[in-house]
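About this split. The held-out portion is used to measure sequence recovery: a designer receives only the structure tokens and must propose an amino acid at every position. Recovery is the fraction of positions where the proposal matches the reference. Here is one held-out target exactly as it appears in the evaluation file.
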């Protein structure tokens, strides 16, 4: 089993950068989850991907020629070393020596001089190198994405770019059936955990600094969950009432399933997702919250396979999307997402929306949600749906947060410290 944190971070980065695996999947490996230095490894990996373009420019300057494919682990080790020198508060000599020592564990002693040389050259010329890298990578977003964002948000794109490259705050969702927000803030305060209530939200609390969840009062008893304030509006807008039948389509890992169950009593919730592994996390979340739902692993659009013909009062469709509103939480999206994905996602979103509409009762409501800031996946999807479907009324979402659109409401990345999110509430009419 691997134990050296820099080695673990090197392998993790290689899997994301060169094998296109998602960072969350890679970090969920038990070798990382069980490692004492998990936080250090996570910081190196998240930070490396957040500042990927900057580190790229510096690497290009310092390496005389690119490393061969079989030696991409050494390139990733250099990324680990550079990240420590630029962004972490580790004494330079320790960062260099510890990083160089990994070449031995990798059984690539030949690279010892190279890693040592590159890191020391960086230290010699760091001001010049960083100035050049910052100048060349103004947006740090892939050009295709920047172009789409600029086109969609003429006046806001610069703020979106800045927000997408910053660290996201840790935000909690409080179960206000069990405790009011001020009392929980007092309990946090008593443990010296600085936090503020999020404006316009009934349930959200933002921490001044990220914490281990088990430091939070009664996390294990389900009093709070970790969830961005923007995502918490789903439960509020859906407006479930006692005893309703609710479908949580695309439910995993279950952040919103748990919240829906906290919004009203005796709900009959069906949670569907097509990834068994992710669906397990819905179960874990519900167990902690002491809630229950009928969890089904299926393609939610293939309703013949899983639906019992009993219609729903409420449907939450938290559609698979580009996740361009949450790049600050998942910086690997900048590497993994491609321009051509958008058209494929649009097709999938429209297909799921159309397949689920017949499952809704007359007078029932469907909330379409994405963590995307691209109109192609959001308002344009609702407009396209309305052309075909005549038994739909678009309900206005009365709120003080986000931007009201002709159809739905958009929160842009970083607005009031929130993730980028889109909501449209549709009601089925006769
Ligand atoms: C945005 S995430 C859902 C997040 C979740 N609602 C929450 O709040 O924790 C989208 C989910 O859609 C699932 N998914 C994608 N295509 C699907 C399909 N055809 N049927 C069911 N689930 C699907 C993915 O596995 C992923 O878990």
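Reference sequence for scoring:
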């Amino acid at each position: 089993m691997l134990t050296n944190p820099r080695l673990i971070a090197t392998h993790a980065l290689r899997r994301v950068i060169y094998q296109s695996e998602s960072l969350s999947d890679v970090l969920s490996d038990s070798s990382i989850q069980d490692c004492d230095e998990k936080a250090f490894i996570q910081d190196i990996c998240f930070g490396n991907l957040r500042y990927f373009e900057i580190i790229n420019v510096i690497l290009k300057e310092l390496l005389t020629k690119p490393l061969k494919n079989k030696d991409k682990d050494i390139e990733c080790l250099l990324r680990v070393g550079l990240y420590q020198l630029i962004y972490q508060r580790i004494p330079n000599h320790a960062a260099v020596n510890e990083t160089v020592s990994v070449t031995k564990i990798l059984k690539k002693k030949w690279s010892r001089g190279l890693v040592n040389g590159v890191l020391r050259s960086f230290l010699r010329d760091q001001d010049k190198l960083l100035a050049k890298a910052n100048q060349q990578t103004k947006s740090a977003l892939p050009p295709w994405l920047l172009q789409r964002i600029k086109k969609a948000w003429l006046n806001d794109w610069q703020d979106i770019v800045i927000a997408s490259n910053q660290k996201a705050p840790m935000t909690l969702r409080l179960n206000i059936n069990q405790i009011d927000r001020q009392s929980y803030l007092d309990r946090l305060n008593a443990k010296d955990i600085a936090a503020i209530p999020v404006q316009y939200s009934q349930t959200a609390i933002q921490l001044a600094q990220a914490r281990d969840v088990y430091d939070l009062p009664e996390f294990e008893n389900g009093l709070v969950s970790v969830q961005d304030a923007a995502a918490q509006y789903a439960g509020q807008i859906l407006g479930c009432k006692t005893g309703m039948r609710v479908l949580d389509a695309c439910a995993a890992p279950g952040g919103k399933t748990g919240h829906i169950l906290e919004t009203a009593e005796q709900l009959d919730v069906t949670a569907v997702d097509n990834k068994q592994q992710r669906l397990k996390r819905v179960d874990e979340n519900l167990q902690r919250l002491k809630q229950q739902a009928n969890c089904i692993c299926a393609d939610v659009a293939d309703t013949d396979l899983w639906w019992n013909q009993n219609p729903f009062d409420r449907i939450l469709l938290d559609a698979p999307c580009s996740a361009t509103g949450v790049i600050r939480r998942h910086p690997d999206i900048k590497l993994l997402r491609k321009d051509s994905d958008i058209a494929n996602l649009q097709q999938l979103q429209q297909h799921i929306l159309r397949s689920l509409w017949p499952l809704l009762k007359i007078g029932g409501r469907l909330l379409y949600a994405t963590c995307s800031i691209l109109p192609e996946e959001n308002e344009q999807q609702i407009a396209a749906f309305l052309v075909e479907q005549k038994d739909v009324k678009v309900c206005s979402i009365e709120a003080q947060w986000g931007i009201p659109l002709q159809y739905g409401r958009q929160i842009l990345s970083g607005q009031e410290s929130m993730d980028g999110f889109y909501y449209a509430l549709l009601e089925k009419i006769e």
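Annotator remark: The first helix runs from residue 5 to 19.
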